[in-house]
Every structure is written in C-alpha cells, then in structure tokens.
UniProtKB/TrEMBL annotation:
Residue spans of biased composition, Basic and acidic residues class: 1100-1112
Subcellular location: Nucleus
Pfam family, one: AAA_12
Domain Helicase Sen1 N-terminal: 6-43
Record-annotated DNA2/NAM7 helicase helicase domain positions: 527-817
Occurrences of domain Helicase SEN1 beta-barrel (ranges): 377-477
Species of provenance: Aureobasidium melanogenum
Entry-linked PANTHER family: DNA2/NAM7 HELICASE FAMILY (PTHR10887), HELICASE SENATAXIN ISOFORM X1-RELATED (PTHR10887:SF495)
GO-annotated cellular components: chromosome; nuclear body
GO molecular function term, any single one: hydrolase activity
Protein name: Uncharacterized protein
C-alpha cells in the first residue's frame, strides 16, 4: 500500500512540475495594473502554493523571494490589503511557518518591557532595551526581523530544507548574521537597601506622573469611536497609553520583584489595574473606568482581519458531506450525546466557548436536514458529469444546467445536493447516493456551469459512478449559507474586537442620569424617561448595551433615536460619510486605505429589517434637533424584501448607477448575427466544394465556381475572425462590467450612513473587504436569534453593539430538542441578562394596548413594571365597547374539541373557527358605519388552524376577505399589531397537556398584539392544565372578563342586548415624561412607579353630573394585579402588612343581569355572560365590571421573591 501511495505521490509531483516551473512567470503577474487580472494572479499563485505543498513540493527560490518582496513592499504592486493577507497566509502555509506573534495595543508599542522577577532582572544586564524592535507592533509578520535573526528564523530553515534558496538570499545580503540583541554591560553590584529606597522613590514619582497624565487624558481623550456619539462630545483618538500603561499593569510584578529582593510580602494594588485578556481574545480591551465603559482599539494585522472575515470552512463541509441523508437519529451520524455540553453563562476562554458551541451548531444543522427530509418538497433533476478532478480533500464534479431548468430547481452556491442513481433520490435509500455541495456556479449564455464537491473514500458508494459522461440524478436538500456564516463567525471569534465581552457575557452597566441630563434627549426625540436613558447610555457606553422593549413600549422609536444621536457628528460634517483611518499592523501593510464611518443595523427577519428601513427612509433627527435625510442601503435580494424598500436595496441602487444595459444587449445580438451568417456561409462552402469534387462542372463554369468557392472561404475566415474579436470584446466587457459593478457597490457603501441587513445577510461576501468597518452595530429583536447568528455582524471591527429585544417574547427557532436542552436556543441577550440582570434597560411604558388588555401581561410577565401611557383607555375606546360581549378584553370558553389536521402533525379546532366567524359577523353587522378593513387580525399557534381559518372565511365571505382580515400564526405576528385580535388557542381535549401553548413567551406575544380589543377563544377545561393558562383564566373570571354558556346564542343576538356595565376608569399608567404632566412618581431605588387611581364616584349626584374624582392610593399601578397573580402562582395565603391597598369588589354594585357560574356551568339561563365563580375570593385584580371601593389594609407582599417598591411618606 505504501508503494502505491508513493507512486501516486510521484505521479502528482510530475503533474505539478510544469506549474511549479511556470510559477516564476505567474508571480510576475502580481505587478499587473488591471484589477481583474490582479485578482486572478493572486488566486492562481495561492492555488499553486497550496497544491505544491500538498505533494511536498516547494516554489522555486526566485518565486519565493519575489512573493516575499511583494509582501514587504520591495516590489511595488496594486494589491489590496485583502489580497496581500490572502497571499501571506498561502505563503506561510506553503513554507510551513506559522504566525504565533501576539497582538499589542497601539499604546504599548513604544514601551519597553519591564522585568517580572529577580532572575529576569539579573539576566537583563543594564536594563537597556532595543527600541528598534520595541517600536514595531508585535502583531505583524515582520520579514525584516526574520531575516535579521537568520539562525533562529523558521522561515530560513523551511526554505533551506526545500531548496538552495538560502544561498541566493545570502548573496543578496538578506540573511546577514547579526544579533538583534544589544551587547550587555556587566551587572553592577548594588546595595539592597539603597536599591529598595530608590525603587520606592521611583514608584512615588511614577504615581504622580500617572495622575497628571490621567488628568490630561480626561481633558483630551475621547471614546476611541471617532465621529460617532453625542454631538459636541470630544472624540479625539485614544492610544496615549495612560489607561493601559505597562508600568501600571506591572505593579504586581514589581511587588513580586520586591519580595524576591527583600522578602517583603506583596501588598494588594489597585483593583483597576489593566490586565491582559483572560479569554485569549485577540481584540479589544476594556478600560477600567467607572463610567461609562470605554474600549481601547488595538493594532491589527491584515492577516488576522482576513482570518476574522473569511475563515476556513473546509472542516464544516467535510462533516456535512460525510453524512447519510437516510440516517435515522436525533444526533448526527458518528456522534454521541456526551459530546454536547450545556451552554454556560460565562466562559473563561474563547476555546471553551468554541468547544461548547461548535457541536451544538452541527447538531442543529443536522436537525435542519432531518426537517427538510420530512417536508418532502424535492424536485429531482438530471446531472451529466462533464469532468472530474481532485482538489484538496474533495472531488470536484463539473456539470451544467439550462437557465429554464434552474428556474425550477434554483441552484446556488453553498446548496447541499443529494446525488443518487435513482430517478427519485429522496425515496430510494437502497440506491447508491451521497451528499454534494454546490461549490461554484458560472452563468453562460445558454446554460449555467455548476461545480459540485463530494467527499472521496470507500464509504462513498457514488464514487464509481462519478466519471465523465455518466448520468446521475440529484435533488436540492437545502442551503447551508446561514450555517456557513454562523460557523465562520464562531471560528473567527478570537479575532473579534469584543471577544472578551462575548465569552464572559458581560454587558456595559447602566449609567445614572439626572432629569436635567435627560431633558435634551426627552424633548428632542419626544421620549419618556426610560427611553431617553437607554438612548443616552447606548451613545456613551462602548461594548454591549442591552435594551428590553416589552410590547408597544416604543422599541423602534428608541432605535431611531439612538441612530440619530450616533450619527449626529457625521451628519454635522458636510460629507456623505466621514472617513477614518483603519488601524493596521506594522510596516508590512501601509495604511493607505480608509474606511467609511457608518452604522450596521440588523434583525433576524426580513420583516423586522424592512420596518426599520421604512423608518430610516423618513429621515432622522440629530441631537441639535435638525431633521436630516440619510443614505440607507438595504442588503438582500429584491424579491425577499418589502416592496416599499426595494428602491434602497443594493441591487436596485447599483442598477441605477450603472444605467441601461442596452449596449451589452446590442453587442450580444451582433455577435449572434455574425454566428448565424458564419453558419450560412459554412453551408455554402460545403455545397460548393461538393460541386467541385463531383466533376460535373467544366470549362468556364468551373472557373467561376472556383472563384465563388475562394470568395466564400475568405468570407468564412473573415467572419470567424470577427466572431473571435466580438467574443473577446464581450469577455473584456464582462470583466469590465464586473469590476465596474464592484466599484459601484463600494461607492454606494462609502456614501451610505446606515446599512440594514438580516443577521445572516450581514455576512454577505461584499462586506468581506478590508475597506469597510462597522464600529457600531444595532441588533433589533436580539432575543429572537441564537447566539451564533448575533456574532455575524460583529466581525467588522465592532466596538459598540446595542442589543434591543424582549426575552419575555418568542425565543429563537431551534429544531433540535437536544440543542434546546443544552440552552442553544438562548440568545446572547439572554445570556448576558442572566449574568447581569441589573444591566438591562427596561422600556417601562406601553403605548399600544387598552389598559384592560395590558393588565394581565404586565403582572404575569413583567412583574407589574410595564405601565400604560397617558390616557390609554380614552385613546383606545371604540364604539363596540358599548357591548359587554365586545369589550376590550374577553375570554370565550368554547366547548369544542380539537382534531388532527388532514396533513402533518398540526391540529385544528372547528368550534373556535365558528365562534371567530360569529364575532366578525357581529362586528360588521352591528357597526356598519365603522370601516374594519385591515383592522382585524386572527392569529393562532397552529399552521393547520390558520389554513382552515382562511378556507372557512373565504368560503363564506369570498376570497377578498384575506385582504380585509390578516390571518397569521402567533410567531409570525411578533412585532406587529392590530386594532382587534381574535386569538384561537385550538388545544381542547379531555386529557393531555396544552402542548407548546405552555410556552409563556408565545402566550405573551399572542395576547399583546391588540390595541383596542383582544378576544381569546379557548377551552377552559383543557387550558386549565397549563399553569400560566390557569392563571389567565382565574384572572379573567376575577375581572369578569370570562364568557361561557351558549356562545352561539349570544353572538347571534344583537350586541346591544348585552350592554356594558358602568365600570371605573382604572388608570394604572405612568405619564410619559415627554408630556410633562404629573400622575406618576418614580421611586429612585427600585424604578417602580406609584400612580393615582381614578374611579367613578359613589356619590349619586356626582354620577348624575358625569363628574369623575380621583382617589389617591399608596400602591403602584398594577399592584392589585400583581399581588393577586403572585398569590395564585405561589399558592400562598396573603398576610396583613403595611401601607397596601386592596381593590375589593362592592357586592351591592354587582349587576343583576349577569349570571354566576359554578364549575364553569351557568346557574340559570344558558345565554348569559358569566361574572365569575360563585365563591369569589376577597382580593380581586382590577375589577372592570364592578364599582370598587378602596379599603386600606395592612398586608405584606404576596410573594417574598418579588422586589417591592420603597414607599415615600405621604403628604397630606
């Protein structure tokens, strides 16, 4: 076997000998001026080095030297930073030399290294330092240093072992033998006591110098994020070394040295000493300041930036291509459950982070393939193998598909294809099959060239069939583009600027502001205090800022205000995009490129991104109150975005800049005309030759025929030349068009202020240029994406990331139950919140829901901290609220059973569909003057129920009903709202659980979409088996919002037969700061608000006059709701305490029209509205159908685990 392998290697070496000999000419191409040819020269050179290295061959010495000179600038070229980084990586891999050189901050570059121990001090001689070496950044591949240290240079050894290159280099004088270390002076003998005294004096002098330097830095230093931040705020470049002094950072080492010299026990130094990155990150370091958090930027080599932007994905491809499509199992083939670890709240090192997340990422990818297999929506197609070759560790298969065929199957790069010998690949497990990856596609005139990659080996049964000329079958399984981007982000994490913050899950702390400090933000952007505080902190803090936005709390408005504040400085300049210098590493790569200062705004879904784009298109307001239009670019396919933002997509903007393509079309038509004429002339030449060869033509006619033949042949030759020239022109035009398109894309990005994309879309190849960075990233719906997705947009030099989301709403979608059990579905937002719950900004006022709707979610999901905006009851009042059936909040107890859907594993409930139709009929019949178009949303957790709802409504009201009513799933409706929401729960059975209805986050989304009315349809007997649903049902009964009995009879009667009872106006709102009105007092210690409660007067005269009075209560808004819910959840009996107020139902005010129920059954008439259980508890949750009386009681909080507000003394 070894002999065979050796023979095979010798054959490969022989085949590669010619490319090796030609490499000298290829490397000279690196000096070309044409951008397209330069890119090809770089890729060919790198590929040659890679292939030669795989068979133990090396480049000739002259080629190696030339590439080295190109990289060091000795040979002048027009290579970009990215191309040099790619070339350097290939050269290092080729000669077997790695780069294990540590990064160093810009502030540390010029500082001499201190000795850390007595032994090191003794061996240091006089302590002099070679400033020539200290003046260069460590994180550079300094070829000069390698050449100077010839005896220790791994580069020289590698080249010497491969060829006589070293001799040539010596001849050139590049490897002069000289020591990089200075000569050492003898160590002078010193008196230990004098030395100790001298050291103490030096340390005291140093401390005084540092204090002066710190004071100067506070006057002159900025955040390091130049051009971004509060207008008028100083943003001078950092890096003077004050906060990261090597002297300061080595105080502990000084103590260690003192201990060795004098036996003195080291004393503990200041806690704010800057330490090296414990996570192993090659990125930014957090400055140890009190407030706000500042990030010091580091010098970075282009090679590391390349590793961060374009890591090697071959290990991922090998793993996936080795899988069997028909394998049955929850875990990927060849894996065990013990390989998967639970995600920790914090990681000590980036390697631990990667070792935890990599298996979970692969596990989730496998479940994605399993889900694709179950959906069975595959479209097989034929594949004719044109060519086969071995490239790296893969086998490449070349084929083609027609344009018409590709419209049907839609093949693109990074798709996974199932190869099979069966014409129905996904149904025949016995046929030979394997996975293949679409590695490359090239569009041609008549077809698309497709290159596939498969894994070789004896386990691949398809290898014998993958030969040129063979015919196989394939079907697209799924695209792994998002997976590649997540995997790449994970691999490059160690090069991230915020690596340490990510691994440690450490957000920036909350900053404290006075009302006076927040007033400009409040007034300028019309925000409340919580929103203004979030904006101010997001602008002033670097690293991660967490903002939790409950439903309707103005999340999007806050984001727009943040973006406006951050761009204020840039927009104050009369430029489309201010430029900054990108930090580069060392002298190897000159800093001749600049990066545009701009913001990257992302979200997990296209819908969320498009919503932000529409807001940005309207313009933003700067901190000075000036409304400015901004350049917004939406990255993504035009067919996947909202029609209202298509005009700002990158594709549309590029097409506008490039203008019409009629010239290209005319050129192609002319070429086709020439080819058609050439074909006709060729046919005439053939016929004329046949006549000449037949011998039938003689004499003068023969001579004429011969002249005609010669003329035709000349014409054919001329046409052939014209066709060749036309093709060359087309190819040149194609290359020029491609380069021009890239230039236009770069120009658009340079001019843009805001780039918007999905999290996966932010990993697009166009961003992988070193000419652009995004120092600030805003992520909306940050709690609805897995952590790996959130890492993607952070790889472009991000130093400030604002995460906006709500962990109490829907989590990310994760297919693997095992991955979910290991907390893979946990977002980066949630992991940071778990570590530092005190560092989250809560937007505490909602402006969407009627107070009757918001009462339960505020108490159940936000501990009563979510308050209502000013006068929400009045703003959301509607005519149909005059009916008790159509009140703002009702639960309809539908006594029906769910059933399995005809297809799939979903459920439907026909009884709830019927009630939904009756509710809609009641509305449009009784309130004909009101336009309900686009005002009603019907949502359900189950897709089958959604399909059935659409079908039944369309059957009764016509197909146009879907344009008037929005039907959707609960998950898809997150982030949206509607005037009226009908929520169909579906689950209804005598036994069993409530399924994924038990997810409180899904429930929270479902019941917080409505503005004026929320009507829940469900089976109470079934839902009571869910803990949270039981709480909701108890709350609905206690608040008289629960309707049971003959629902069909009630809804078929006119709604006026069930008039709404006179109810108190319960105002549990905190008046927004922007309104400037009172009514809410903010507790400084807990952030809980105390409000005034309004109710109807019990005085008949005042009721007749229609006047309202206010009664002051010493309890925060929602206190009654929260206390009651906590009593139910904890099953505890409340005890009397101090200064609490209970809302107790006035029995005398109960309406006689309502019929009580016992065990959910009406006592008297069936067609009635239930007012709750017969046995009412003494404590109620904001009763809405009775007149309450305020009874002052002394009671303790119901739940000892719930933080309680600190009461301020009353002022009578």
């Amino acid at each position: 076997a070894s002999g065979d392998n050796k023979t095979s290697q010798e054959v490969e070496q022989g085949l590669l000998q010619m490319p090796r000999d030609a490499s000298g000419h290829v490397t000279k191409w690196l000096r070309l001026r044409d951008e397209y040819l330069i890119s090809k020269a770089v890729s060919i050179t790198c590929e040659i080095m890679k292939r030669l290295e795989s068979v133990d061959l090396r480049l000739p010495e002259d080629s190696t030297i030339y590439v080295d000179d190109v990289l060091n600038g000795t040979v002048k070229t027009r290579l970009s930073m990215s191309q040099k980084a790619e070339l350097r990586r290939a050269l290092e891999t080729h000669i077997g030399v790695g780069s294990e050189i540590e990064e160093q901050s810009a502030a540390e570059i010029s500082k001499p290294q201190r000795q850390g121990s007595l032994a090191s001090w003794i061996t240091s001689g006089s302590g002099t330092t070679d400033t020539s070496s200290a003046s260069k950044p460590k994180r550079t591949l300094d070829m000069e240093t390698w050449r100077a240290a010839a005896n220790e240079s791994a580069l020289k050894k590698a080249i010497s072992s491969a060829s006589p290159t070293a001799e040539m280099l010596k001849a050139r004088g590049d490897f002069a033998k000289k020591s990089v270390l200075p000569t050492r002076t003898p160590i002078a003998q010193q008196d230990p006591n004098n030395f100790r005294l001298k050291r103490q004096q030096e340390q005291e002098a140093k401390r005084k110098r540092d204090l002066a330097a710190i004071a100067a830095a506070k006057r002159e230093g900025g955040s390091g994020l130049q051009g971004i931040g509060l207008e008028g705020k100083d943003h001078s470049t950092k890096g003077q070394g004050v906060m990261v002094s090597s002297d300061e950072s080595s105080d502990d080492e000084d103590d260690q040295l003192d201990a060795e010299l004098f036996g003195v026990k080291p004393t503990k130094k200041r806690a704010n000493t800057v330490k090296s990155d414990a996570a192993g990150a090659i990125g930014l370091k957090r400055e140890q300041r009190n407030q706000p958090v500042r990030i010091e930027r580091r010098v970075r080599s282009a090679k590391d930036m390349r590793a961060r932007l374009a890591p090697d994905l071959a290990p991922l491809h090998k793993t996936i291509l080795g899988w069997d499509f028909f394998y049955e199992g929850d875990y990927p083939p060849n894996s065990k459950d013990w390989q998967f670890q639970k995600v920790a709240n914090s990681f000590r090192h980036v390697a631990d982070y990667q070792e935890t997340f990599r298996p979970l990422l692969i596990l989730e990818a496998w479940q994605g393939f399993v889900k694709s297999r179950e959906e069975s929506s595959f479209k097989p197609y034929e594949i004719k193998v044109v060519n086969r070759s071995s490239v790296d560790a893969f086998i490449e298969i070349s084929s083609s598909v027609t344009h018409a065929e590709n419209k049907e199957i839609q093949i693109s790069e990074s798709d996974i294809i199932l190869f099979s010998m069966s014409n129905n690949p996904t149904a025949d497990a016995e046929a030979d099959h394997c996975f293949a990856q679409v590695y490359r596609t090239r569009r041609q005139k008549q077809h698309i060239e497709v290159t596939y990659r498969v894994m070789p080996g004896s386990n691949n049964s398809m290898m014998s069939h993958l030969v040129p000329g063979s015919l196989i079958h394939g079907t697209k399984v799924q695209s792994i583009t998002p997976l590649e981007r997540e995997y790449g982000a994970l691999l490059g994490l160690q090069y991230y600027d915020l690596c340490d913050e990510i691994t440690k899950a450490r957000p920036s702390p909350l900053l404290d502001y006075t009302d006076k400090q927040l007033a400009p933000i409040v007034n300028n952007y019309t925000l409340n205090k919580a929103q203004a505080k979030a904006v101010q902190s997001a602008v002033q803090n670097d690293a991660f800022t967490l903002i939790q936005g409950p439903p309707g709390s103005g999340k999007t408005k806050t984001i727009v205000a943040i973006v406006g504040a951050l761009l204020s400085d840039s927009l104050s300049d009369k430029q489309l995009g201010s430029k900054i210098e990108v930090p580069r590493g060392g002298t190897t790569f000159p800093t001749n490129t600049t990066a545009s200062k701009k913001l990257l705004v992302c979200a997990p879904s296209n819908a969320a991104v498009d919503e932000l784009v529409m807001r940005f298109k309207e313009g933003i307001k700067t901190l000075k109150g000036v409304h400015r239009k901004v350049n917004v670019v939406r990255v993504g396919r035009s067919d996947a975005v909202n029609s209202s933002v298509v005009d700002v997509t990158m594709e549309e903007l590029v097409n506008k800049r490039l203008g019409s393509t009629n010239n290209d079309k005319q050129a192609r038509e002319q070429t086709q005309q020439l080819m058609k004429e050439h074909q006709n002339v060729s046919e005439q030449v053939r016929l004329t030759r046949a006549k000449l060869d037949s011998g039938e033509v003689k004499g003068k006619e023969l001579s004429q025929l011969q002249d005609q033949f010669n003329a035709l042949r000349n014409r054919k030759t001329k046409l052939g030349t014209q066709i060749d020239n036309a093709k060359d022109n087309e190819n040149s035009a194609g290359r020029a068009a491609e380069l021009n398109r890239k230039r236009v894309q770069q120009s658009i990005l340079d001019d843009a202020h805001i780039i918007c994309a999905t999290l996966s879309g932010s990993g697009h190849d166009m961003f992988q240029s070193l000419n652009i960075e995004f120092e600030t990233v805003v992520v909306d719906e940050a709690a609805q994406c897995v952590e790996m997705s959130a890492l993607i947009p952070l790889k472009y030099g991000c130093a400030k990331c604002i995460l906006v989301g709500d962990p109490r709403q829907l989590p990310p979608t994760v297919f693997s139950k095992a991955a979910s059990a290991n907390k893979y579905e946990q977002s980066l937002f949630v992991r940071m919140q778990n570590n530092h719950p005190e560092a989250v900004h809560l937007l505490d006022t909602q402006y969407r829901m009627h107070p009757d709707i918001s009462a339960f979610p505020s108490a159940a999901f936000y501990e009563g901290r979510l308050l209502d905006g000013d006068n929400m009851a009045g703003l959301r009042k509607q005519p149909w609220h005059a009916s008790d059936l159509l009140a703002p909040y009702r639960f309809f107890d539908v006594q029906g059973q769910h059933q399995a859907a005809p297809k799939g594993h979903s459920l439907i409930n026909l009884a709830e569909i019927e009630i939904a139709m009756l509710l809609y009929e009641r509305l449009i019949s009784d309130y004909r003057d009101h336009d309900f178009k686009n005002k009603i949303g019907i949502i359900t957790p189950y897709k089958s129920q959604l399909r059935e709802l659409k079908q039944r409504f369309s059957g009764r009201y016509g197909l146009d009903i879907t344009e008037s009513i929005e039907f959707n799933t609960t998950d898809a409706f997150q982030g949206r709202e509607s005037e009226i929401i009908i929520f169909s729960c579906v689950r209804a059975s005598a036994t069993g659980s409530v399924g994924f209805l038990s997810d409180v986050r899904r429930l929270n989304v479902g019941i917080t979409r409505a503005k004026s009315s929320l009507w829940i349809l469900g089976n109470s007997d079934s839902l009571m088996r869910g803990e949270v649903w039981k709480t909701l049902l108890d709350d609905a009964r206690d608040r008289n919002c629960y309707i049971t009995g003959n629902l069909h009879g009630m809804l078929k009667a006119h709604s006026s037969k069930f008039p709404a009872k006179k109810t108190p106006l319960i105002k549990h709102s905190k008046v927004s700061a922007s309104n400037g009105s009172g009514g809410a007092k903010q507790n400084g210690s807990t952030g809980v608000t105390t409000n005034k409660v309004q109710g109807n007067s019990t005085n008949p005269k005042k009721e007749a006059d229609g006047q309202k009075i206010q009664k002051e209560a010493d309890v925060q808004a929602m206190e009654g709701v929260r206390v009651k819910l906590e009593d139910k959840l904890a099953s505890m009996r409340t005890k009397k305490g101090e200064e609490d107020v209970d809302m107790v139902d006035a029995e005398s005010a109960r309406s006689g029209a309502s019929t009580p129920t016992v065990n959910n059954e009406p006592v008297s008439a069936p067609a009635s509205v239930a007012s709750g259980p017969a046995a009412k508890p003494k404590t109620y949750l904001l009763p809405t159908t009775t007149t309450p009386q305020i009874i002052r009681k002394r009671k303790k909080p119901a739940d000892p685990f719930m933080p309680q507000p600190t009461r301020k003394p009353r002022k009578d």
